[in-house]
Design goal:
Layout: E1 4-7, H1 15-23, H2 29-50, E2 63-68, E3 73-78, H3 85-93, H4 100-107, E4 129-137, E5 146-150, E6 155-160, E7 167-174, H5 184-194, E8 202-211, E9 214-223, H6 240-250, E10 259-265, E11 271-277, E12 291-295, E13 298-301, E14 316-320, H7 330-335, H8 337-360, H9 362-382, H10 384-390, E15 395-397, E16 403-405, H11 406-413, E17 424-429, H12 436-444, E18 449-451, H13 457-467, E19 471-475, H14 481-484, H15 497-508, E20 517-524, E21 533-537, H16 539-548, H17 555-559, E22 562-569, H18 573-610, H19 618-648, H20 650-662, H21 668-681
Parallel strand pairs: 2-8, 12-14, 17-18, 17-19, 20-22
Antiparallel strand pairs: 1-6, 2-3, 3-7, 4-5, 4-7, 5-6, 8-9, 10-11, 11-14, 12-13, 15-16, 21-22
Helix pairs in contact: 8-9, 8-10, 9-10, 9-13, 15-19, 18-19, 20-21
Length: 682
């Protein structure tokens, strides 16, 4: 053939600037594209040979990547089908576009999506090269070798050349801005990233060995890839050790995975892969690049949002599907229907595999539960279909360390823990040590207590309440044990209004200042053997604050102080003693003040009742204001008398401090004073 000169298509003036700037977000992707093309060419020849359409010797079928730093070139060579001048004209010169403007308009927001669809992978070479050469000899009988050259403008040269071996060499003359691609270490790193599992051997550089105190090249070619990775094999042909070895090949230096799921489906889409359950530490971190996505063993991305459900970001491993294009944008992944089907399939497969593992070896599943709990809970909270399936194998653990399915646990507790309204009450603790006294009181009463100390449990509890009919989850320290599961109307504390006011002031004035905490004093007629004073925390507010800690949008709750109930047990002998001594000491001084307050309040009411249309005259308003000030003065005097007395009665402070101590709320100077007071009371 004569030397041919020409332009690459008529309307491609703007293609090269687009390739340089917009087509690929990462320049490094060029190597994946060129090596993938070389692998395709190799596999096509193998296919033709198997059909008898190519009768010659296949010979060495490796793909080779060679760096020549001195010459400034990077070469990708194969021994595949090769190209004739006509092939180059068709696949390289005449790119199938009706016009560059239309092309730019169509793909300006999503240029990545065109590669693969239009065979533009070859042109990625111009992102890093100032000149690209193709030297190729087709497998076809009588074919002539051809050399094509282009400097990144639409002009090209094509001519006959000498080439002894079948196949194609793509020679990149690397430009000044991309000299890093002339370093063997850089090429090794990219080949490891993109080509480590390609189905054809890829050779680059030489094997090294230790000699004279350093690593030196040997004369053996270095094969950079594993052509038959674990996910391409049949599960029946693999041992547990094979899966573990593959996991450590993907993630060196990590602990063994807990278990794995081998994906293998060929209808209605093709999908293979292996997903591993790593040991997930309790510090809940969703690492977004744990799962690698491949297309026919070519690495695509480790940003798999959209391909796998969000909760599976906690897994590790490989997914391979030719139904996902090599070059995809995030918006494509999120909107494509095939991808959505794949995501649904993976969810279903993971759920059924977990159920299978649970049924096959429950003891082993229980042993691993603490490590996989966060994954299963996250899945149940974020994926309705997974939640539905997981209700069968989701476990709960009680303070005795026994595991139950949700159904088993309900059967266990519903006889003893159903309240007067027919709700089954699930008692739980978030801290077995700090809440020990409350757990002990509950178990003494014959109740069972669950351990819910995970980071997702505050959300998970709410979800379970919505899923399990007639159920309530109540933290074991949210009320006194008699009120956790109300069986009938509770007995009221038998106090007169004066006693209630006096005792309320007596206890409230002795509560120490606790940072970001508020206390409400209340009275309960509990068992005489129960503690004199107990502290509980409102279930709803505490749960809201726990959830706020994980959800920035709920910071309103997070900023509120902790709200505690300080419950005084009026049946306790200690409290009865305090009440009797307080009345005998203070009644003579408090009774006249209380009588005055009652009389003045009655007078205020009478004036307001007599006012026409509820409007007071100036004279009436003046009298009401005078009476209100007098009431306020008497109340203040009454409060001061009680507060002075409270300081002289160490029992009040002691009972409060004991309750604070049981809840881990007594600290610093207050704790020191409690110890000194305890010694003096002995």
């Amino acid at each position: 053939m004569d030397t041919q000169k020409g332009k690459i298509g008529v309307t491609t003036e703007n293609i090269f600037p687009v390739i340089k700037k917009f087509l690929y977000s990462d320049h490094e992707i060029f190597l994946r594209e060129l090596v993938s093309n070389a692998v395709d060419a190799t596999q096509k020849l193998r296919t033709l040979s198997s059909f008898g359409e190519f009768k010659g010797e296949l010979g060495d079928m490796k793909v080779k990547v060679s760096v020549d730093a001195d010459a400034g070139t990077l070469t990708v060579s194969d021994h595949g089908i090769g190209m004739t001048a006509e092939d180059i004209d068709k696949y390289i010169n005449q790119i199938a576009f009706s016009g560059a403007e239309e092309f730019l308009e169509k793909y300006k927001d999503n240029a990545n999506a065109i590669i693969g669809h239009f065979g533009l992978g070859f042109y990625s070479a111009f992102m890093v090269a100032k000149k690209v050469e193709i030297r190729s000899l087709s497998y076809k009988e009588g074919a002539e070798a051809v050399r094509w050259e282009c400097d990144g403008s639409p002009e090209f040269t094509m001519e006959k050349t000498d080439k002894a071996e079948r196949g194609t060499d793509i020679i990149l003359h690397i430009d000044d801005e991309n000299k890093n691609f002339l370093q063997q270490s850089e090429i090794d790193s990219l080949l490891r990233k993109y080509c480590r599992f390609l189905p054809v051997p890829v050779v680059s550089g030489k094997e090294q060995e230790w000699k004279d105190g350093k690593m030196v090249d040997t004369d053996r070619d270095k094969v950079v890839n594993d052509t038959e990775p674990t996910w391409t094999k049949k599960p029946a042909d693999l041992t547990d050790e094979d899966y573990r070895n593959f996991y450590h090949q993907l993630y060196p230096g990590q602990e063994d995975p807990l278990f794995w799921i081998h994906l293998n489906v060929d209808y209605p889409f093709t999908l293979t892969g292996v997903l591993f359950f790593p040991k997930i530490k309790n510090n809940f971190e969703v690492n977004k690049n744990r799962i690698q996505l491949y297309c026919n063993q070519v690495y695509v991305t480790d940003s798999v949002e959209g391909v796998v459900p969000d909760f599976m970001m906690l897994l590790q491993g490989v997914i391979d599907s030719p139904d996902i294009p090599l070059n995809v944008s995030r918006s494509y992944l999120q909107s494509d229907t095939a991808v959505k089907k794949i995501s649904g399939y993976i969810t279903k497969k993971v759920a059924s595999r977990l159920e299978e593992i649970f049924k096959a070896d429950r003891q082993d599943f229980e042993n691993k539960w603490d490590d996989i709990r966060i994954f299963i809970q996250y899945g149940m909270l974020t994926d309705e279909k997974f939640c539905e399936a997981a209700m069968k194998f989701c476990l709960v653990k009680d303070t005795e360390g026994k595991f139950y399915t949700l159904e088993e646990y309900r059967t266990l507790i519903e006889g003893q823990q159903t309240d007067k309204d027919g709700n089954v009450v699930y008692l739980y603790t978030t801290d077995r040590v700090a809440q020990y006294a409350y757990i002990h009181a509950a178990t003494e009463k014959g109740y069972d207590v669950l351990v819910m100390d995970g980071q997702l449990d505050s959300h998970f509890i709410g979800m379970l309440e919505s899923k399990i009919e007639k159920s309530r989850f109540v933290r074991v320290d949210s009320d006194v044990v008699e009120n956790l599961i109300p069986k009938s109307d509770r007995k009221a504390a038998d106090l007169t209004p004066l006693q209630r006011d006096m005792m309320s002031t007596l206890f409230k004035c002795q509560i120490p200042k606790v940072e970001k905490a508020e206390f409400i004093v209340s009275f309960e007629a509990l068992n005489a053997d129960a503690n004199p004073v107990m502290i509980t925390q409102n279930e709803y507010m505490r749960r809201m604050k726990d959830m706020a800690a994980m959800q920035p949008g709920m910071s309103f709750y997070g900023d509120l102080p902790d709200s505690y109930n300080l419950i005084v047990n009026t049946e306790s002998p200690v409290v009865k003693r305090i009440m009797e001594s307080t009345e005998s000491e203070l009644n003579a001084r408090i009774d006249p003040l209380d009588k005055n307050i009652s009389e003045k309040n009655a007078e205020i009411k009478s004036i307001r009742d007599s006012a026409k249309d509820s409007k007071l005259t100036d004279e009436q308003q003046g009298k009401v204001t005078e009476l209100e000030q007098a009431v306020e003065h008497d109340r203040k005097e009454e409060q001061e008398i009680i507060e002075v007395y409270a300081k002289s009665n160490p029992l009040v402070k002691q009972t409060i401090d004991l309750a604070l101590l049981a809840n881990g709320l007594l600290k610093g100077q207050d704790l020191n004073e409690f110890i000194r007071r305890s010694v003096s009371l002995l």
